[in-house]
Design a protein that fits this description.
Layout (H helix, E strand, L loop, with lengths): L9 H14 L17 E4 L6 E4 L5 E5 L2 H11 L18 E7 L3 E5 L5 E6 L7 E4 L5 E6 L3 E5 L3 E2 L14 E2 L20 H11 L22 E3 L5
Parallel strand pairs: 3-11, 6-12
Antiparallel strand pairs: 1-2, 1-10, 2-5, 3-4, 4-9, 6-7, 7-8, 8-9
C-alpha cells in the first residue's frame, strides 16, 4: 500500500494483501487481456461527473466474489436514487467486475472532491473504494499511486462501446463468496498462482511512478470515509 507521497509502506501493504486473501480482495482472470485494438479506454460514471482515460487495455481482468467487494457494491448500489453503472459481474452472485491498470496508464480527465465519495469495509477498513456520489457508480475498487482496480463495466472504447475482455473472465476468491452455488465457472477458491505472478509486478509498482495520481481519489482521513458494515463475522 502506498502513502500519499508515493512511498510504499510494505508492512501495511503486506497486511492488506493478507487481509485480501482472507476476505478476500485480489485476483485475476483466466485468459490474456491484451488485445490488438482498440488500445485506449475511458472510465465514465453514468452521470458524467467523473472520467478517466487509459492508454492500454486492462492488464488483468477478474470477478471478485469476496465478502468485502460484494458488500461494498451492495451498500452503494442499494441506496435510494442509485442510477449509476453497476459493478456487478452478474445479478446472481453480485461479484465485482474488476480491471487492473498501472497508474502510469491512467489519466483522470474529469473529477472533483465534491463528486467523489469513498467507502471502506468496517470501521477499521484500510482500503477506500471510490464512487460517484451523484449517480452512485463505483469507480475504483482500489486506487493507489502505483496501480488501480477499475469498475470494468464502466469502461468504454473511443466509440462509446463497452469494453469486452477477450475470453472468459475467472471468478475468484470464491471461498469467501456469500453463496458459492451462485458463482459461475470458470472459478477459483482463492488466487491462481500463475495469475498472482502477473499481479506482483503491478502491485510492486514496476513501470509506474505515481506521477498520474489523482489526489481527490485518496482520502486524507480514513476515519471520515463511509462504512459498509461487516455482516459476516
Amino acid at each position: 500500500r502506498s502513502s500519499r507521497s508515493g512511498a510504499v509502506d510494505w508492512s501495511v501493504l503486506f497486511h492488506d494483501i493478507c487481509g485480501a486473501f482472507e476476505s478476500s480482495h485480489l485476483d485475476i482472470s483466466s485468459s490474456p487481456t491484451m488485445s490488438s485494438s482498440p488500445t485506449s479506454y475511458t472510465l465514465k460514471c453514468k452521470c458524467g461527473a467523473f472520467e478517466a482515460t487509459f492508454n492500454t487495455p486492462p492488464r488483468i481482468n477478474f470477478n471478485c466474489q469476496c465478502h468485502s467487494c460484494v458488500s461494498i457494491i451492495q451498500t452503494i448500489e442499494s441506496r435510494d436514487g442509485f442510477s449509476g453503472t453497476s459493478m456487478k459481474c452478474d445479478s446472481d452472485s453480485g461479484g465485482a467486475s474488476v480491471a487492473i491498470y498501472k497508474s502510469n496508464n491512467t489519466t483522470v480527465a474529469k473529477s472533483d472532491k465534491e463528486s467523489i465519495g469513498c467507502m471502506k469495509v468496517g470501521p477499521n477498513g484500510k482500503i477506500a473504494r471510490s464512487y460517484c456520489n451523484k449517480c452512485g457508480t463505483v469507480l475504483f475498487n482500489v486506487y493507489a499511486p502505483n496501480w488501480c482496480a477499475v469498475n470494468r463495466n464502466a469502461l468504454v472504447n473511443a466509440e462509446g462501446e463497452p469494453y469486452v475482455p477477450e475470453g472468459e473472465v475467472m471468478n475468484v476468491n470464491c471461498k469467501s463468496a456469500f453463496d458459492k452455488s451462485k458463482v459461475k465457472s470458470p472459478k477459483h477458491n482463492m488466487l491462481p498462482f500463475r495469475m498472482l505472478l502477473k499481479f506482483i509486478p503491478i502491485l510492486a509498482g514496476f513501470g509506474a511512478d505515481g506521477s498520474n495520481t489523482e489526489e481527490s481519489l485518496i482520502p486524507e482521513d480514513m476515519s471520515k470515509v463511509d462504512v459498509s458494515p461487516i455482516t459476516w463475522e
